[in-house]
Amino acid sequence: MFNKPSFISSLLLTLALTNSFPGLAFATPAPLIPPTVFESRSSGAGISIPIRKRSGLANSSGVFDVDKARVDVIMTVNKHRRNMMNYLSTQGSLPAGFELEPLLTFPVKLVETLTGPNIIKRQAVPLTDENNGELWDGQISIGSNDQKFIIDFDTGSSDLWVPSINCTASTCSSKHKYDPSASSSSEAQDGSFNIQYGDGSSVSGSIYTDGVTIAGISVTGQHFAAVTNLSNSVAQTPFDGILGMGYSTLSNLGAPTFFETAVKQGVVASPEFSFFLSANGSELYLGGTNSQLYTGDIEFHDVNTSPGYWKISGGSVGVPSNAGVVSGIDTVVDSGTTLIYGPPNDVKNLWAAVPGAAAYDAEPGFYTYPCNQTLGISFSWGGKNWSIPDEHMSTGFADGSGQKCVGAIIGQNIFGSSSPTWLVGDTFMKGVYSVFNLGNNQLGFAQLA
Question: Which has the closest alpha carbon to 185: 214, 165, 213, 215?
Fold first, then answer.
């Protein structure tokens, strides 16, 4: 199971980082930065796609922001609830061991925050704090006339959607919009697309097929939604839309994902894509791996595709003194999630193994620990212990003293109260080279070079 595939010449998306902090929203769409062609460090030509880094869960003083954290938790829970609803719609029943969590709603105070002047709004500024949460987005084009969009690449969902030219609401004012009449290859499809959010708003619109291109990889007849209604909670994110890279069984559209289409149409060299997430030089590699960015073998694990996620089983999580504080866990790896979520009792037991850690009184599920404490928290799936660098584990100071930090592993049921499944986001992915093999249905990790 553990092997390092030979290099296959592939198209490389190198993602340059900028940062977003609270500020004034753009009244017009943020400018698109032209991709730059360069010689990849492996071989062949690649495309550099700028991506943005959103503000994390700390304020400008580095102190943990409870309101931001609550928004993040609610959005994450509701995202995966929607995935399960999509699965139920297409498959007729939920996957074994999964439950449909209740829709979480935003408290009135947070709704006011989302719609008022203090919302976390995008403003491109130089990268200054690698501990902020990341949103890994880049540029794609749709249609015969190459309409360009900034897209979040999300392994935890399976639909592609962008704003429509027919969205005239203020929530669409800062977005790039799809105009089907401007593309000779656009075809309207039956049905509609709709996603409900916890603030009472939604993302909804019409379904189309059209050509979609990411850095020279072009597919035809790709299903996607052009939304005419955009939720308040999504409106002020740095991206225009989302490109899901999970399995199509999670799709609200009930159609193959972009990468599934690319593999079927033979426009990628290998049915594999890889992520390197870092403060600088981040890459999404379509069609293989960049061997210059990792060292040693790639440790592959079979994916249980039945839930539609990149889900692997037989895992454990622990600390240096006890690598198996929690064992027998399932793990969903999601590039569209910043934090790590686990069943509350599991997470409680994990933090109990960290000297000085304690529940964070201001927000259930969060924990604090001494900022100078060495953590060494790691995951394992029967092979190597994959440690999370301590610098990725803090979401901010617990208070102005700077003595206690708030940890990035949260106790929160995402897939049901009886499910042993953890949701592992960028907090983990930043410390490894992650490889998603659609051909073999395997997920692999390698040591960073």
Answer: 213
Nearest to 383 by CA among 305, 449, 291, 301: 301
Ranges 67-76, 372-381, 408-417: which has the least confidence: 67-76
Task: Point out the catalytic residue in the list 154, 159, 330, 346.
Answer: 154
334 part of the active site: yes
Do strands 421-424 and 322-333 pair parallel, antiparallel, or not at all (unpaired)?
A: parallel
What's the burial of 106, exposed, middle or buried (CB within 10 Å: 0-12/13-18/19+)?
Answer: buried
Residues 6+ apart with CB under 8 A from 168: none
Q: What is the Cα–Cα distance from 374 to 396, expressed in whole angstroms?
A: 16
The CA distance from 302 to 440, in Å, is: 8
**Strand stretches in 235-321, DSSP E:** 241-244, 272-276, 282-286, 294-302, 311-319
Distances (CA, A) of 366 to 102, 409, 443: 20, 7, 28
Total-model pTM: 0.85
Active-site annotation holds for 154: yes
pLDDT score for 108: 60
Which has more confidence, 84 or 29?
Answer: 84
Q: Kindly state the percentage of the chain with pLDDT values over 90.
A: 57
The span from the CA of 148 to the CA of 68, in Å, is: 29
Catalytic residue among 65, 210, 334, 426: 334
**372: which 2 tokens?**
């100078």
Nearest alpha-carbon partner for 294 in 429, 154, 442, 152: 429
pLDDT value at position 23? 32
What is the rounded CA–CA span in Å between residue 115 and residue 205?
A: 21
Token pair listed for 403: 């003595």
Selection from 148, 156, 152 nearest residue 138 by Cα:
152
**C-alpha to C-alpha distance for 106 and 396, rounded to whole angstroms:** 22
The span from the CA of 241 to the CA of 207, in Å, is 14
On whether the CB atoms of residues 14 and 110 are closer than 8 A, the answer is no
- Residue in the block written with tokens 């939304």: 227
Q: What is the pLDDT confidence band of residue 354, given thresholds at 50, 70 and 90? A: very high
Give the per-residue pLDDT at 183. 98
User: What type of residue sits at position 267?
Assistant: V
DSSP per position, 347-377: HHHHHHTSTT-EE-TTSTT-EEEETT-----
Dihedral (CA of 3, 42, 133, 396) sign = positive
